[in-house]
Amino acid sequence: MVDSKARGEARASGPTVADTLLGDRCPAPKPLLESRYEFLGDEDIPFSRYTSRAFFEQEIERVWGRAWQWACREEHLQEVGDTYVYDIGPYSVIVVRSAQDTIKAFLNSCTHRGTRILAAEGSGYSGGFTCPFHGWSWQLDGTIDNIPARWDFPHVCPETHDLQAVSCERWGGFVFINIDPHARPLAEYLDVLPEHFAHFPLERRRIRLHVEKTLPANWKAAQEAFMEAYHNFETHDAPNGANAQYDIFGKYVSRFIHNIGNYSTEALADYPGDKWRNPPLTEHEILQILSVFGLRHEEVPKGETARAVAAADLRERLGEQWGLDLSGVSDSLMLDSIEYHLFPNMFFFPGINIPMAYRFRPNGDDVDSCIFDLMILEPLGDAQQHPEPPEPVRVGIDESYTVVEDLAWLGAVYDEDTGNLQMQQQGFKTSRKAGLTLGNYQEARIRRVHMTLDEFMSGADTRN
Ligand code: FES
Ligand SMILES: [Fe+2]
Predict the structure, then answer these.
(1) Which domain holds residue 158?
(2) Domain check: are 48 and 75 in the same one?
(3) What CA–CA distance (Å, rounded) separates 211 from 404?
């Protein structure tokens, strides 16, 4: 039943992702051919990490108060005075384009008696900041500007009463903040991301759609539902992902590559039942599965594969739609689900047809729910400037993603992905087992996040 390989060395039967990529008509760029994995252990992960209020409160202070996290995209801040309010747990941060080339961030709290300065999360515009309580005001760069009845505050000066600065850096068109006054530079956390994404510049993307939904599970359980393709067979009734590749590039960055349009009957033999493999799917049937992408082609010429036909079809159709020459883009980038994760809670997809970014964060102070931001980041045409980004579409905790028409076929998929979460969060609390069990390979990215989380919780990562 269990093979004799060393722990972590066993893999699905059938062709690997590298086999598929090397066999593609249009070859994949170098970063997609890399693979990096090491066995990280096989102990259970305590359920209390997902359910305990004490653990949650410690995360607020030691993770959300100290980790780099993306607050918004640069395209939210195109003009001087554009602001974005980002709320995380109890914290709130104002991000502002304070000058043509400068983006700054401040705690969203008045230096008089502490009042929140900007009320609503999300985009806004401000010529300067004014507290709604007694009217203290600050310039866009956080400098204290005006104090009504100044005579009563001789003890107030810029050094102590300018807005409280928050570290702010940019990468890939995202604006990151870090609340920790002693934050190490963002570059120290990005691992391979700058090198890999030099091939897939996210700066040249625009937000086509932003959907925000509250989910009924702890933020870690919710994001972990998106970190493996092991669930595809049962949750999505889909024949793909059984031989996905999982990479761990360091403490902060991991990846999966999950081929689309290339289904391994050998790998599916490890799952119950005959569906999808007996008889094996024909190339024509595979192309029918891929028709959800809006393909123009309905036939696979003899000697061709559905994967090659679909990639070529998308290159042509999307290239025309966006005014971009996609002729040199690899089949893998055109089709596959390629997902990078950055600790603690951010996902970046370099793919062209599966071009998402995700963020999972605590929902205020509720340990049992979280907020899932989903962005579709489409490539910009060659000479195109970033348009104004769309407002997020907010979907209620009990609503279906299918209410968002622009998600098209993905709406039902996100319903499936998030449909298990409430039952999982409840199951954590009724189990007699101490924790959840992870696969050594397919779920190793989840374990890596928990290991880095431990370093933050102990202070080992963030303090010298
Ligand atoms: S609390 Fe902000 S001006 Fe008084
Ligand atoms: Fe899924």
Answers:
(1) 69-182
(2) no
(3) 8
pTM for this structure?
0.97
> Are 85 and 124 in contact, with CB atoms under 8 Å apart?
yes
* In a shared domain, residues 26 and 76: no
Domain boundary among 182, 214, 245: 182
134 Cα: distance to centroid of ligand 1 (angstroms): 5
Query: Which residues make beta-bridge pairs with 277?
Result: 280
Nearest ligand, CA of residue 417?
2
> Is there an atom of ligand 1 within 6 Å of 139 CB?
no
The per-residue pLDDT for range 205-242, each reduced to its tens digit, is: 999 999 999 999 999 999 999 999 999 999 999 888 89
SS3 readout for 125-142: ECCCEECCCCCCEECCCC
Cα of 234 from ligand 2 centre, angstroms: 10
Tell me the CA–centroid distance for residue 125 and ligand 2, in Å. Answer: 37
Looking up tokens 């359920």, which residue turns up?
Answer: 47
Nearest residue (CA) to ligand 1, atom 3 = 134
- Residue 103 Cα, ligand 1 centroid: separation in angstroms? 24
Assess whether 26 and 90 both reside in one domain.
no
HSE of 356 in the Cβ direction (CA atoms, 13 Å)?
Answer: 21
Asked if 267 and 353 count as a contact pair (C-beta separation under 8 A), the reply is no
* Contact yes or no for 342/251 (Cβ under 8 A): no
- Looking at the structure, tell me whether residues 120 and 266 fall in a common domain: no
For ligand 1, say whether the CB of 117 is within 6 Å of any of its atoms.
no
